[in-house]
Amino acid sequence: MTLEPPPLLDSLELDQFAPGVVHRLRLCLSHNALGREFAAPVLIFRAAEPGPVVGITSAIHGNELNGIPTIHRLFDKTGAVHNLTRGCVVAVPILNTPGYLRFQREFHDGRDLNRIMPGRADGNSAEVYAHRILELLVRHFDYLIDLHTASFGRVNTLYVRADMNSEAESGMARAVRPQIIVNNDAGDGTLRGAASRAGVPSITIEIGDPQRIQPGLIRASRLGVQEVLEHVGLLPDIDDPDPRATTECSRSFWLFTDTGGILEVFPPLNARVKKGEIVATITDPWGRVVARYPSPIDGIVVGKSTNPAAHTGARIIHLGVVSRTSDG
Ligand SMILES: [Zn+2]
């Protein structure tokens, strides 16, 4: 079965989309060397009542895919957007289409779109694309939820990155009820940071592992996004039947290896570790342990490496400094 491709647009005028139905379209963000469009898939649902516009973006890193079904399920026949009482949801399941086609994190030119925001109108290929993401999409948003996963060779808990000193962003982060919230002033160059600086409160949800579809985490992230839509007033407030416990971290950091070899990381995701506890070892090719890594803090495991082949300076484990816990 071949379905007609949705209409191709150069810009969005949200008022022109009729309320109460799902709109599917392609938004042209730039052109390739054959003159064909790099067009991002977009889904839009408007309520009859005006209200905030919530943007949901996914796969700005082209191999981070759990956000795609998270968005699809929000928009399917029984999806939550059909219950919208006010406002509008604009979702982009695949923001970095060239990277997605190559199974890679970066844009087609090897640049990381989530490190060069806000881009430049007259810059190189990736910079122009980044600029147009902000101009053609984010400019319409009142809130942004950007969906990611761990990078290649790593795994993550379901965790949210947000500036917890911002009332709007901490409220969105807590609404998601993830396993972990990491307080993090959005770095220069990220979509979350650029949107935030443009006055659009933004959070990042990290959903599991790269280049995979993980149904349990997708369900949890979909429910989390719905809770944010309730929190900002687009959906009626319904009690979460299945509240999850969240651990909040004031900061987080990675441990890195100081030699090369075969890396083994011991604690599971979301586990508490004690200061001094050995969290990883490096073994040489003859089976001799050449390095042991103690945890420098009492903390929690946000993410970790799953790639045993470790050069000097390889990532080991992502640890959070716990500031607050809730039992859901
Ligand atoms: Zn990412």
Topology record:
Elements: E1 8-9, E2 22-31, E3 37-46, E4 49-58, H1 67-75, E5 86-92, H2 97-101, H3 125-137, E6 143-148, E7 154-156, E8 158-162, H4 167-176, E9 180-183, H5 191-197, E10 202-207, H6 215-231, E11 246-256, E12 261-265, E13 272-273, E14 278-283, E15 289-294, E16 299-305, E17 309-310, E18 315-326
Parallel strand pairs: 1-2, 4-5, 4-6, 6-10, 8-9, 9-11
Antiparallel strand pairs: 2-3, 3-5, 7-16, 8-10, 11-18, 12-14, 12-17, 13-16, 14-15, 16-18
Zinc ion binds at residues 61, 64, 148.
Descriptive account of the structure:
With 328 residues, this protein is an alpha/beta fold. The chain folds into two domains: 237 residues, Aminopeptidase (3-Layer(aba) Sandwich), CATH 3.40.630.10; 76 residues, OB fold (Dihydrolipoamide Acetyltransferase, E2P). The strands form two sheets. Strands 1, 2, 3, 4, 5, 6, 7, 8, 9, 10, 11, 13, 16 and 18 form a 14-stranded mixed β-sheet that branches. The radius of gyration is 20 Å and the shape is globular. The termini are far apart. The mean pLDDT is 96. Bound molecules: zinc ion (ZN).
